[in-house]
Amino acid sequence: MIKIGFYQFCPTFGEVRANLHKIAEALEKIEAEILVLPELCTTGYLFTSPDEVSELSEPIPGPTTHFLEKITRRKNLWLVLGMAERDEISKRCYNSAVLIGPDGLKAVYRKPHLFLEEKLYFTPGNTPFRVYDLGIAKIGMLVCYDHFFPEAARALALQGAQIICHPSNLVLPGRGQQLTHVRAIENRIFWVLANRYGTEEREGKKLTYTGASQIVAPNGELLAQAEPDGESVQIVKISSAQADDKRVTAMNDLFQDRRPELYNIA
Amino acid sequence: MIKIGFYQFCPTFGEVRANLHKIAEALEKIEAEILVLPELCTTGYLFTSPDEVSELSEPIPGPTTHFLEKITRRKNLWLVLGMAERDEISKRCYNSAVLIGPDGLKAVYRKPHLFLEEKLYFTPGNTPFRVYDLGIAKIGMLVCYDHFFPEAARALALQGAQIICHPSNLVLPGRGQQLTHVRAIENRIFWVLANRYGTEEREGKKLTYTGASQIVAPNGELLAQAEPDGESVQIVKISSAQADDKRVTAMNDLFQDRRPELYNIA
């Protein structure tokens, strides 16, 4: 059994140092092996210009990952979080998720499906969907709007992902929770949705995030759910191998029952 | 605007003639352009031997489709229903759906994903997922457990299906309704789930079907829902072209936002 969970919180826009401090404080009190934080949780979400994105983004590895590595090494923790990445060669910015563990930075995933004005500020990610074997579990990462595309979770599940870690800043009330619940069921995997809460208002724009972070089991059981508003840490004990059993009935294995020769959906 | 709907009922096992009579009686009172009936709705579902399946199955075209064609021609109706099909050359049986319209039999779809003991009695279908342009709407057919596989609905939606007609005999409480709701949302299509209700008990086996047939709009709105138990006819007016607009926001078209080059899920 391993302990996995999420930390739902409300970052302050543009205050990377303060947000990291907040995360560090929370992590000190959390006992978990795998913890997921929201999307863009060191910068906030509601950017208003490309210059602002470029200024607040960071290389990976960079100051933020170096800072967090110290904690994950000491606490023997796997941490997945969303952050704004700047590629120092191309100068492109990505809405990325990073996986940082007991040995430091392990992986970067660049969100390929961009939502609303992210399209003005970020380059669509082109990192392949990849599964990371942490020893204690095989995990995949998706970021927010990626969940709308069943192919994304499927690509990870078919590669053996047992847990999908899903940093998010969801804004359509209930929709993301509903979709990720079904993603867990149709792939028979664990799903950790770490959503932020709160409202951001900047230069006449306003977004309210839906909170309600959740952990779903492969059979669809809702193992944990936060309120729509407010900070929340929830940790559950799971056996990650439960996700390797794809049977929905004694005679139906969801992966063996697939008929890929008929789908033709590329 | 066109009128589409479902007829949720409880067939009597093995009584094809009586079930057809019941369907015919109901159709006389229904005003609709497209109507969906449950899976295996002329025979019942809970077969107990291959011989029984073979005996109750029929060729398509055959007596059942001939009988129903007379009604659909006269009423200018498109009818989708599930029925047991026997191929007269191979002697194989299929859990099929048929599309019968104002000009007679239009198409047969053989369910490719078989559930539970269907695997003992039916051959898995190998008809490609195909969309039929009825003039008033472009439709695709899926049968029951097919809904568990996001690839199936996706294959139809990518070919332009505006409405998925889904004859079912669902048995997992709430699950089919939840999954098909999300299938409509993630593809921005209409979905008509025609589920049967009632309990079948045969030779020590027992199944209870979950009813709660539903019609979902591309934006996820539940346009109609039946009770879990009891007969129900529900007809709604829709504009099928609404399903051609795949935008979830002003900047997000669900189909243009797809990144098939990254999925690799065949």
Order of secondary-structure elements of chain A: EHEHHEEEHEEHEHEEEEEEEEH
Q: Quote the average pLDDT of chain A.
A: 97
Q: How many structural domains does the protein architecture of chain A include?
A: 1
Question: What is the subunit arrangement here?
Answer: homodimer
Stretches of chain A where pLDDT falls below 50 for ≥5 residues?
none
Report the portion of residues of chain A in β strands.
Answer: 25-35%
Instruction: State the fourth-level CATH superfamily of chain A.
Output: Carbon-nitrogen hydrolase
The CATH class designation of chain A is Alpha Beta
Describe the structure concisely.
Two copies of one chain form a homodimer. The first copy, chain A, is an alpha/beta fold.
Describe the structure.
The structure is a homodimer of 266-residue chains. By secondary structure, chain A is α/β, with parallel strands linked by helices. Chain A has a single domain (2-263), classed as Carbon-nitrogen hydrolase (Nitrilase/N-carbamoyl-D-aminoacid amidohydrolase, 4-Layer Sandwich), CATH 3.60.110. In chain A, 24% of the residues lie in helices and 32% in strands. The first copy, chain A, is built from 7 helices and 16 strands. The first copy, chain A, has helices spanning 16-29, 50-56, 63-75, 118-121, 150-158, 175-187, 260-263, and strands at 2-8, 34-36, 78-86, 93-101, 104-110, 132-133, 138-141, 163-168, 190-195, 197-202, 205-210, 214-216, 222-225, 232-238, 247-249, 252-253. A 6-stranded mixed sheet of chain A has the order 5-4-3-2-1-14. In chain A, α1 packs parallel to α3. The interface between A and B is large, with 44 and 44 residues.
